[in-house]
Amino acid sequence: MNKKALSGELIPYDGPGSKGLGSFYLKDESFWLTQSQMSNLFDTDVSTIGRHIKNIYDTRELTKKPTQFKTTIEQEERGRTVRRTATLYNLDVIISVGYRVNSKRGTQFRQWATKVLRDRLEASGKTALHDASVASVVKQIGAIALARELESDEVRGLLQVITDYSLALDILDDYDHQRLLPMVSGFSAVEPITYDEAMEIVEAMKTKFPESTVFGLEKDSSLNSSLSSIFQTFGGKDLYSTFYDKAANLLYFLSKNHSFVDGNKRIAAAIFVSFLHKNRMLHDSNGGKRIADATLVALTLMASESSPSERATVLNVIITLLQSSDER
Fold it and tell me: Which CATH class is domain 134-327?
């Protein structure tokens, strides 16, 4: 791992249980903590923190490259200042660890951190999609995801679906992924999610959300339209010529069309990750997820709640995030 300079802003932590916790680094629109700082924050030992971080990386919940870096920091030891190499972890790791070892404090820290991030986003004046370039939206999308209160049933349900990939992907077990040809652009290389497969996914999801008697109840025929629209042709050519175009428009159509009485965003996310999985595009070349869980929550919400005039920006954000995984 390359060593990076620890440039950034030191933000004094003044959230719950802040006594003696000091300041945390805000850099690249994320907070960065060492294992020792996480140990103090979540009131547990460093070895427990390290064990959970190892598990997070081993299970590919997060990948190392974008979520940690080594740097040299100065600290006081026995009355003298010493310089030591330390590994810092970003907000995605911090929150994942917090929910495992001290969920109450993890929630409190997330609320404090996202308030700081949200305040800075608002101060920058970039509060609407149409006011920002695609590049700046991509850079801020993780912060936008975290700024949405994860206690809400809507977002918690979305995150549950996205995290538990097996719920949707088990439906496709009879598909021989190992024999697929390498992905290339164009209609013939992209495998669709059929209407029957989509409805199997919806039926499987109903067991996860039994509290709603109308979850997955179709309102009209727009689901079939969303699934087939991305394969439309004109003059013998695909309207959506690449896999990325098809994937981005699929998520947009599924999120926007509101085909069901209840569960539209959760179903959209599940079918979208199934489409990525079926085409061997769910993970990047390093085995990590192309789009992190919190980011996919944000994309689904953004697609659903954006105005029609913002469609091009929403699609460009999704495509940029999918393609950026190939460049990492």
Answer: mainly alpha
DSSP states of 138-193 as a string?
HHHHHHHHHHS-TTSHHHHHHHHHHH-THHHHGGGTTS-GGGPPPP-SSGGGPPPP
Shared fold status for 9-124 and 134-327? no
Q: Where are the alpha helices (DSSP H) in the chain?
A: 35-42, 46-58, 64-67, 91-101, 103-124, 134-147, 153-163, 166-169, 195-206, 222-229, 243-257, 264-278, 293-305, 311-327
Q: How many angstroms separate the CA atoms of 75 and 66, rounded?
A: 25
The domain ranges of the chain are 9-124, 134-327
Q: Does domain 9-124 have CATH number 3.10.260?
A: yes
On the question of pLDDT at 42 being above 70, the answer is yes
Helix, coil or strand: residue 299: helix
98, two tokens:
């917090």
Q: Residues 266-284: pLDDT tens digits? A: 899 899 989 998 898 888 7
Looking at the predicted structure, is the pLDDT value of residue 3 above 60?
no
The pLDDT assigned to 303 comes to: 83
Helix 195-206 to helix 264-278 angle (10° resolution) is 130
Mean pLDDT over residues 18-36, rounded? Answer: 80
- As a whole-number percent, the residues of the chain with pLDDT over 70 amount to 72
Rounded CA-CA distance 27/25 in Å is 6
Q: How far apart are CA 146 and CA 106, in angstroms?
A: 13
Beta-carbon count within 10 A of 162 CB: 24
In the block, residue with structure tokens 């290389």:
189
Q: What are 176-207's pLDDT values in tens digits?
A: 333 333 444 433 479 999 999 999 989 888 88
Query: How distant is the alpha carbon of residue 167 from its chain centre?
Result: 17
State the distance between the two ends of the chain, measured CA to CA, in whole angstroms: 14
